[in-house]
Write a structure and sequence with these properties.
The complex is a heterotrimer of chains A (about 240), B (about 300) and C (about 325). In chain A, strands 6-7-8-3-9-10 form a 6-stranded mixed beta sheet, with helices on both faces. In chain A, helix 3 packs parallel to helix 6. The model of chain A has no long low-confidence stretch (mean pLDDT about 85). With about 240 residues, chain A is of the alpha/beta class. In chain A, a hairpin with a 2-residue loop joins strand 4 and strand 5. Helix content of chain A is about 35%, strand content about 25%. Chain B has a single domain, classed as ABC transporter involved in vitamin B12 uptake, BtuC, CATH 1.10.3470. Helix content of chain B is about 70%, strand content about 0%. Chain B has a two-stranded antiparallel ribbon. In chain B, strand 1 and strand 2 form a beta hairpin. The termini of chain B are far apart. Chain C is mainly alpha-helical. Chain C has a domain of about 220 residues. Chain C contains 13 helices and no strands. The radius of gyration of chain C is 20 Å and the shape is globular. The C terminus of chain C is likely disordered. Classes of the chains: A alpha/beta (about 240), B mainly alpha (about 300), C mainly alpha (about 325). At the B-C interface, helix 4, helix 5, helix 10 and helix 12 of B face helix 4, helix 10 and helix 13 of C.
Chain lengths: ~240, ~300, ~325
């Protein structure tokens, strides 16, 4: 595979909670403008990798490079300032703030042009504009996911990390969210996507990683992974 | 009865000021701050010190205006005491809580540390000013204005209500519309997500302590003006403060405002058929009833 | 010249008070150290225990004195009945308190227990028909006092306190090493998984609350008979609750030996400045007790900051039920 344009690189990450390691030497690369899907069974450490990249967990071994700069161990707000945004799987909105306030908080550290960026988000998710003065906790699951993604996009990130954005959503929202992810990617944002919905994720992704018990066991072009019969059987449910 | 309710509102508005600060700190820092009442007492005594100390030395007149308790010294001491107590709260956070946060100390140990700080503040008050009750102005200022419904009100009480209204309204505007205020609400809602959004939550915590401390000082001074100062006042406010906070749902400023008024009125009304010394027990009984039947408070709010 | 006699009697007094406080500490250790119950209303049990034992053992007032004293009863029974009564009443009160509060969040339990202690104090303060109101009860009898010269009585009382302290210690150690005790610690560590194992959390917490309260009631009774007079204002949050928490945290919660050690160390720290404050300027001397409490408060903050597990730390117990 082509090694040019790598903007984010995680090498040999070992990390865990307390004494128990979740990841044992996992690695991953993200190229400019690509969608990277990470799939694998529960407990394989997919979300843990995102948290580690974002500085929420400190790896005991391994390094993370952003454009050749070592960002291992930086605090989340420092990493946010460097252009990475992260949408956790749960608790990813400010429930008692309005939709608009949620977006404003997303752009807290980019003070200028907040209004322009908010209207850009509203163009991406028109339904949010109608509900901009409603509290986020009053929205439906799909709309909350849009608020969560909108909040992350307010940082104007180069890389957007999404942790299972389709989890728990109604089917019509699932395909809509995936469409939006492609739309965001088309604007030049690289995307790291952790998904249970492996088939859809790999269809859309340029590169796929398969994680098993704390390691990346396979990676390749998304569609090729999909067609690999072994993977199909093991991780995609036949 | 109406008169009793009116006094309850005055007393309750003082509880509200304290409870709003308590609920902000509770909402963001997630532990029961047992020294919040003592910050009230601290503010009241610092104002007393300013009035009788520095402001007297520089020769400002101590004579109150008209039939109020407000002199030029008090008008200066009030905001200065607010700032000093805000600073004190931030200092306590920097010395004690910053480290406990970094170590991931449980909220219970933080509450115990708060209990310790509460006693330290109280003992300092005892050591410096002694155990006796103190008044800002010795003279009797009991000349009342007659309002409809046979309510008699002292000018001081009107001023107290005006000050509370101004403070609560400014806080409301700050939290609703300012960038820092919104970030404070966001942090109270979801501190992890605030950090993920790049918000410097340590700065938010400092603002929270500062605002909470300043409001506590205001409440303490107003209570001192209305009644008197004594070293135990902080402790005696503890149950009403927590009752108001939990009644109004933790983290909810408007809930704390309403909760404070409800507790104040209930305590005042209880004096019609109970000894006034039972007032703290009235707050406690209300607290137990809320905990039994609606532990999330009457304003919904989050349960965590 | 060192006054040996005086020194000895001073140390006896010290050991009695520290021993009584150690018993409170052992009781709190059951609540907090082993179960994680956040009780800041120790003063309430202290007060109830002291009053119950006093009312059970005191003879009915006679003569002119009777005109000045009101109390709900005066049974004139021997000391053991007083202690047992104190334990029983505290157990019942704990049960009643536990019903509404034990299902609450920990910090809510704390606030509720503060309220209970304050309310109990207010009741004894205001309702003079129960136990003579603000003036309190005096002339509480001392066990075995006819045996020795009053000057040497404290040696006997020290024996009683030590005996009870050791008994309580052994009972707690037995309990905590039993399967029952392991469930308590499992609840403290992780309530959810303990309940998933099918343990009735509420029942276990209730038993722990009652057990600890009984121990505190006994402590209260011992205090009443030593002090011979009690009044509601003895049982303030400072003297009745806070200092005991500091003792347990300094000694090491979750460790009965630590609880006793903390009781003695902090009581020592509490009385030691008495010698120093004598040399303070007269103006400050009347405020010496506050200075002593200030020191205790600062010690607590230092321990929490630098040695949160206390002097002894938690004792490791064999075989955890969970994990």
């Amino acid at each position: 595979m082509d090694n040019r344009n790598i903007i984010l690189k995680a090498e040999n990450i070992t990390v865990g909670y307390g004494e128990k390691d979740i990841l044992h030497g996992a690695s991953m690369e993200v190229r400019k403008n690509e969608i990277v899907a990470i799939i694998g069974p529960n407990g394989a450490g997919k979300s843990t990798l995102l948290k580690t990249i974002f500085g929420l967990l400190k790896p005991s071994r391994g390094t993370i490079f952003l454009e050749h700069e070592n960002i291992t161990g930086l605090s989340p707000d420092a990493i946010a300032r460097k252009g990475i945004s992260y949408v956790p799987q749960v608790d990813n909105i400010f429930p008692s703030l309005t939709v608009k306030e949620n977006l404003e908080m997303g752009g807290f550290i980019r003070k200028e042009q907040t209004a322009e960026r908010i209207s850009e988000i509203f163009r991406l998710f028109p339904v949010l504009e109608e509900k901009k003065h409603q509290r986020a906790k009053e929205l439906s699951g799909g709309q909350r996911q849009m608020v969560a993604m909108g909040r992350a996009l307010m940082l104007d990130p180069d890389i957007l990390m999404l942790d299972e954005p389709s989890a728990g959503l109604a089917p019509k929202f699932v395909s809509m969210i995936f469409e939006k992810i492609c739309e965001i990617n088309a604007k030049g944002v690289s995307i790291i996507l952790v998904e249970q919905n492996a088939r859809e994720a790999l269809t859309m992704a340029h590169t796929g990683y398969i994680f098993v018990t704390g390691k990346n066991v396979l990676h390749g072009i998304g569609k090729e992974l999909l067609e690999n019969p072994e993977i199909g059987q093991l991780y995609l449910g036949g | 009865m109406l008169e009793v309710i009116f006094y309850g509102i005055i007393y309750g508005s003082i509880i509200s000021l304290g409870a709003i600060g308590l609920t902000l700190v509770f909402g963001i820092l997630r532990f029961a701050n047992f020294f919040h009442g003592d910050l009230m007492a601290g503010g009241a005594y610092i104002a007393f010190f300013l009035i009788t100390g520095p402001l007297a030395w520089i020769g400002l007149p101590g004579e109150p205006f008209g039939t109020t308790s407000f002199s030029i010294r008090m008008i200066i001491a009030f905001p200065v005491a607010l700032i000093l107590v805000a600073g004190l709260s931030v200092l306590i956070d920097r010395i004690v809580y910053k480290r406990l946060r970094q170590k991931g100390t449980s909220s219970i140990l933080k509450a115990i540390a708060a209990l310790g700080i509460s006693f330290i503040i109280r003992m300092l008050i005892y050591i410096i000013w002694g155990p006796d009750q103190i008044k800002y102005f010795a003279g009797a200022r009991r000349i009342a204005i007659h309002l409809p419904f046979q309510i008699k009100v002292r000018p001081d009480e009107l001023i107290i209500i005006i000050i509370v209204t101004v403070l609560v309204t400014s806080l409301h505007l700050f939290l609703r519309y300012s960038r820092m205020g919104k970030a404070m609400r966001a942090t109270a809602d979801n501190m992890d997500l605030a950090r993920i959004s790049g918000i410097n939550t340590e700065r938010i915590i400092i603002w929270t302590w500062g605002i909470g401390g300043a409001l506590a000082a205001a409440a303490g001074i107003l209570y001192g003006i209305n009644v008197a100062l004594n070293p135990e006042m902080g402790w005696s406010f503890l149950l009403p403060l927590f009752a108001a906070t939990i009644l109004g749902s933790i983290g909810n400023m408007y809930g704390a405002l309403a909760g404070g008024l409800i507790i104040g009125i209930a305590q005042q009304v209880s004096t019609l058929f109970l000894k006034p010394t039972y007032k703290p027990a009235v707050a406690f009984v209300i607290l137990i009833l809320i905990l039994l039947f609606r532990p999330q408070g009457i304003f919904g709010g989050k349960q965590s | 010249m060192i006054d040996l006699q005086g020194l000895l009697s001073y140390f006896t007094h010290f050991a009695i008070m520290a021993g009584i406080y150690s018993i409170f500490c052992l009781g709190l250790n059951i609540h907090w150290g082993y179960t994680g119950l956040f009780n800041i209303g120790i003063a309430g049990f202290f007060c109830i225990g002291a009053y119950t034992s006093a009312l059970i053992t005191i003879p009915p007032p006679t003569g002119v004195y009777a005109n000045y004293v009101t109390q709900v009863f005066a049974l004139n029974l021997p000391f053991p009945f007083g202690v047992l009564g104190a334990a029983l009443v505290c157990g019942i009160i704990a049960f009643l308190i536990g019903i509404p509060t034990l299902r609450l969040r920990e910090d809510y339990l704390a606030i509720a227990t503060i309220g209970i202690a304050e309310t109990i104090r207010l009741i004894f303060h205001n309702e003079s028909w129960i136990a003579n109101g603000v003036r309190g009860i005096s002339g509480i009898p001392q066990p075995l006092s006819s045996l020795v010269d009053p000057r040497n009585y404290n040696f006997i009382y020290l024996g009683i306190v030590i005996l009870i302290m050791i008994t309580v210690y052994i009972l707690i150690e037995r309990g905590i090493r039993s399967p029952w005790g392991r469930v308590l610690r499992a609840i403290r560590e992780d309530e959810e998984s303990a309940s998933m194992l099918g343990k009735n959390i509420f029942a276990f917490k209730m038993q722990s609350l009652i057990f600890g309260a009984i121990v505190m009631g006994i402590g209260g009774a011992l205090f009443a008979h030593y002090n011979k007079s009690i009044a509601p204002d003895t049982f303030t949050p400072l003297y009745g609750t806070f200092i005991i928490w500091v003792m347990l945290i300094v000694g090491g919660s979750g460790n009965s030996k630590g609880a006793i050690l903390g009781g003695f160390v902090i009581y020592g720290l509490w009385v030691l400045p008495e010698f120093i404050t004598r040399y303070l300027p007269v103006a400050l001397q009347s405020r010496a007790p506050y200075i002593r409490f200030l020191i205790i408060g600062i010690v607590l903050e230092l321990i929490l900051r630098y040695r949160p597990r206390g002097l002894m730390g938690e004792e490791k117990h064999v075989s955890r039920l969970l994990k």
